[in-house]
């Protein structure tokens, strides 16, 4: 299938919807590698060829899974991976590292696991506050010069950090959480990206599955790793309150003949256009059918009134998007 591409920053063109491969690790439930690989192939078949992984996902196992796709279809994939998170974010033993020596070590390890000689988009996954961002991005720029990386990205950075990075090397994209119920990046980060010509890649654009309407209570989270249950928005009282957002999304989905997931993704497209930033969300899924559903969002049209209703619903969300806000750009602004 041929789909129109979106140009992010630094002349990086990608499919209008990406694929967040973290979902293919046992974060939100058990996974099967055979099914996961089939889902990845179906994604590329459909034209969803912007595949996003990270060295920390599954302790490197996610990159190894992606390598099986790349072994057959490397020239069809725009590959993004990340470095910078150490430990295990799922059990709370997370840290970050951004020194130049680690940047060089991390790319070599990722390239080996991925079975490729170049990464199309290489992200700093989290900021190491003990290291000047200029050092981290300077080391990343050396990887571009060496031909190991084509474009640079940053995840969960503040507007000031983005400006400092762009002064060192062109940045193709900022990746941060952004959705109907996670809009803190709109205050400073998204406008700065738009000003600097940097693209934006929203992760968790479906609210970690909540905005699809498939999660009605904490009982629906029983199969996952416990990660979502530790997030403030998924606590019992907050979750019950936040179902109001889902009801608005579902109502509008009925009006336009789409699914709630498609409406949530379409809202992001309208919001990015309004803020003047090139944006490509990366929803994740274990199911091939969901990839097709997500891609269908690019043709969903919303009225100004419907967009406004979704804006209002998102503004009423209860609970922060993460327990430790220092782990997000909003906690450092």
How many discrete structural domains? 1
User: Order of strands across the widest beta sheet?
Assistant: 3-4-5-8-9-10-11
Helix tally equals: 10
Helix-strand pattern: EEEHEHEEEHEHEHEHEHHHH
CATH superfamily membership: NADP-dependent oxidoreductase domain
**Highest CATH level, the class:** Alpha Beta
- Uncertain runs with pLDDT below 50, 5 residues or more? none
Shape: globular
Class by alpha and beta content: alpha/beta
CATH topology: TIM Barrel
CATH architecture level-2 label: Alpha-Beta Barrel
Strand content: 5-15%
First-residue to last-residue Cα separation: 41 Å
Mean pLDDT: 93
Tell me about the biggest sheet?
7 strands, parallel
- Measured as a percent range, the helix fraction is 25-40%
Protein name: Aldo/keto reductase
Pfam family, one: Aldo_ket_red
Domain NADP-dependent oxidoreductase: 16-313
Keywords: Oxidoreductase
Give an overview in words.
This protein has helices at 33-46, 61-73, 100-114, 133-145, 159-166, 189-196, 236-256, 260-275, 288-295, 304-315; strands at residues 6-7, 13-14, 18-20, 50-52, 78-83, 85-88, 93-96, 119-124, 149-155, 173-177, 199-203. The chain has a single domain, classed as NADP-dependent oxidoreductase domain (TIM Barrel, Alpha-Beta Barrel), CATH 3.20.20.100. It contains ten helices and eleven strands. With 333 residues, the protein is α/β, with parallel strands linked by helices. This is Aldo/keto reductase. Keywords: Oxidoreductase. InterPro entries: AKR (IPR020471), Aldo-Keto_reductase (IPR050791), NAD(P)_OxRdtase_dom_sf (IPR036812), NADP_OxRdtase_dom (IPR023210).
């Amino acid at each position: 299938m041929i789909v129109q591409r979106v140009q992010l920053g630094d002349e990086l063109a990608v499919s209008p919807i990406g694929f967040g491969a973290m979902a293919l690790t046992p974060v939100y439930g058990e996974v099967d590698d055979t099914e996961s690989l089939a889902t990845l192939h179906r994604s590329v078949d459909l034209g969803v060829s912007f595949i996003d992984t990270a060295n920390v996902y599954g302790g490197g196992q996610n990159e190894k899974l992606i390598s099986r796709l790349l072994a057959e279809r490397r020239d069809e994939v725009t590959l993004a991976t990340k470095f910078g998170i150490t430990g295990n974010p799922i059990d709370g033993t997370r840290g970050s590292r951004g020194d130049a020596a680690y940047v060089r070590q991390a790319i070599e390890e990722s390239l080996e696991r991925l079975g490729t000689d170049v990464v199309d988009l290489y992200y700093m996954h989290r900021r190491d506050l003990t290291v000047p961002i200029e050092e981290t991005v300077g080391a990343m720029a050396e990887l571009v010069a060496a031909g190991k990386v084509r474009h640079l990205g940053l995840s969960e950075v503040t507007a000031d950090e983005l400006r400092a990075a762009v002064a060192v090397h062109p940045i193709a994209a900022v990746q941060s959480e952004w959705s109907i119920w996670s809009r803190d990046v709109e205050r400073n980060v998204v406008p700065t990206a738009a000003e600097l010509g940097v693209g934006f890649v929203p992760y968790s654009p479906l609210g970690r599955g909540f905005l699809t309407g498939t999660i009605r209570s904490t009982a629906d989270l029983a199969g996952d790793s416990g990660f979502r249950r530790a997030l403030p928005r998924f606590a019992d009282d907050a979750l019950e309150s936040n179902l109001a957002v889902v009801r608005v999304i579902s109502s509008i989905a009925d009006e336009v003949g789409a699914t709630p997931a498609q409406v949530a993704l379409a809202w992001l497209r309208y919001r990015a256009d309004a803020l003047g930033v090139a944006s490509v969300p990366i929803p994740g899924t274990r199911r091939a059918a969901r990839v097709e559903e997500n891609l269908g969002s690019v043709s969903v049209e919303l009225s100004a009134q419907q967009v406004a209703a979704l804006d209002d619903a998102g503004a009423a969300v209860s609970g922060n998007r993460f327990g430790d806000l220092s782990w997000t750009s909003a906690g450092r602004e």
